[in-house]
Specification:
5 helices, MEKHLA domain-containing protein, 155 residues, MEKHLA, alpha+beta
Length: 155
């Protein structure tokens, strides 16, 4: 499997399509219903569920967050997409998070993750029933991992 990154013209739409297609192939169902008349990137960004992803770096950096995710983490696009993904969790549980990400890498996805996350303001929230999956295109190229969840509770 080759490691890839999202660059070039049409990057947002390509990222959205790989995110949606990877989910569908791995889990056998769509992440969300889409309308063929609108760009996938637009629909994904406006989705009511939180969706985020990180790249393939040794210390992965977030490369996507939809409007819902940006709101939960209380960040704008530039701040969110320049943050290492490990900083979405409290320092005390980062080792647990790393073990979890390794399990996702081995299986391809996990569909029942729950955990505490921390917003830029320091406010905490618990995500529940999150799905985390590998971003792999049809050629088998690996782009990182993504997560999606609809349930969360402020802590």
């Amino acid at each position: 499997m080759r490691l890839k990154s999202f660059t070039g013209i049409g990057t947002e739409e390509r990222h959205a399509l790989i995110l949606l297609d990877s989910y569908r192939r791995l889990l056998g169902k769509p992440l969300m219903e889409t309308n063929a008349d609108k760009p996938a990137a637009e629909q994904l960004f406006e989705a009511p569920i939180a969706v985020l992803s990180h790249g393939t770096q040794l210390a992965p950096v977030l490369n996507y967050g939809n409007r819902t995710a940006l709101g939960l983490w209380e960040m704008d696009w530039n701040a969110f997409t320049s943050m290492e993904s490990r900083h979405t969790a409290e320092p005390l549980i980062q080792a647990e998070r790393q073990r979890f990400l390794e399990a996702v890498a081995a299986k391809g996805y996990i569909d029942d993750y729950s955990g505490i996350r921390i917003a830029a303001s320091g406010r905490k929230f618990r995500i529940e029933e999150a799905v985390v999956w590998n971003l792999v295109d049809e050629a088998g190229d690996y782009y990182g991992q993504a997560a999606a969840f609809a349930k969360y509770t402020r802590v």
